[in-house]
């Protein structure tokens, strides 16, 4: 009978399990990502922060990260957005420095959503002011075949 | 506080809004974090091992590609534990963890099959749509709060 493989779990591994990473994305005209970093430094919490091109990543124990995130978001609640991240900042499997450059997996989706954030910020401002939108969602329309034909023909001419 | 499954499961906007309005978003990132931090034989742990397609059999048939089943091993438990859901239909872009069209179809199908409160909406493209987007999500999440309070008071009365 094959002996069972025993996996030793060190206290460091236990600590890792309680650590979380959050990405803070700023979409504010009055604040820069560097202001977020300064706020994180001032919080003197037990967290690690990394500034990236799309926001700030904060890693540490759950309570500390939540407290720092709360402090940062309170600076401009309608323009600072937060999401979780599975991998640690600088993880070799995701960090582009060890993957030969190029955007990291998931970056395109994040960038697309970051482009939508100004609309969400305006939506949040309007919601808290109690304003209601003048019109709802407009259904996406498919391109009319005749219009497409017209465009092709006008290009050929 | 209810657990809300969101689609796209990696969405920054949805996870932020759900947390902002007092609920817990069920997101792919949580599953990934748990997976890569759990100590196992693989060191460093791989994202998807041979075990995931086996676990995915609960959600997809054996003929379904292993990639779909592997992804469903992560998304499936989220759907099972959800108390409500928000689906953004036809997102223009779905890369990274969200890059598999068949998994996305199956995820949406399974969320719709669950008998839970569900909001289906589109990503905003104009300012008015942005306002409507936030308003619909906020109203939906607040109604969940009211419903849970009502059901608690009914239980107390009984």
Automatic annotation (TrEMBL), chain B:
A Pfam family that the UniProt record links to this protein: DUF2112
InterPro entries, per database record: Methan_mark_5
Domain of life the protein comes from: Archaea
Protein name, UniProt field: Methanogenesis marker 5 protein
Species the sequence originates in: Methanosalsum natronophilum
């Amino acid at each position: 009978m094959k002996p069972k493989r025993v996996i030793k779990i060190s206290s460091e591994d236990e600590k890792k399990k309680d650590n979380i990473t959050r990405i803070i994305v700023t979409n504010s005209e009055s604040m820069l990502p560097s202001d977020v970093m300064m706020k994180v430094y001032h919080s003197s919490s037990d967290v690690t922060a990394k500034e990236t091109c799309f926001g700030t990543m904060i890693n540490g124990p759950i309570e500390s990260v939540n407290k720092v995130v709360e402090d940062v978001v309170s600076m401009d609640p309608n323009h600072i957005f937060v999401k979780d991240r599975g991998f640690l900042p600088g993880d070799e499997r995701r960090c582009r420095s060890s993957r030969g450059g190029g955007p990291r997996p998931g970056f395109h989706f994040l960038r697309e959503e970051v482009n939508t954030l100004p609309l969400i910020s305006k939506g949040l401002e309007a919601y808290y002011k109690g304003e209601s939108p003048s019109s709802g969602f407009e259904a996406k329309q498919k391109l009319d075949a005749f219009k497409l034909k017209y465009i092709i023909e006008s290009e050929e001419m | 506080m209810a657990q809300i499954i969101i689609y796209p499961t990696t969405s920054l906007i949805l996870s932020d809004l759900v947390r902002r309005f007092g609920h817990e978003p069920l997101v792919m990132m949580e599953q990934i974090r748990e997976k890569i931090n759990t100590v196992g034989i693989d060191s460093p742990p791989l994202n998807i091992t041979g075990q995931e397609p086996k676990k995915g059999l609960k959600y997809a048939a054996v003929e379904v590609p292993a990639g779909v089943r592997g992804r469903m091993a992560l998304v499936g438990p989220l759907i099972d534990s959800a108390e409500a859901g928000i689906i953004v239909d036809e997102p223009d872009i779905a890369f990274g963890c969200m890059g598999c069209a068949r998994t996305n179809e199956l995820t949406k199908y399974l969320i719709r099959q669950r008998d839970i409160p569900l909001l289906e909406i589109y990503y905003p493209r104009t300012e008015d749509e942005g306002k409507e987007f936030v308003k619909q999500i906020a109203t939906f999440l607040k109604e969940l709060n009211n419903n849970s309070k009502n059901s608690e008071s009914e239980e107390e009365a009984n």
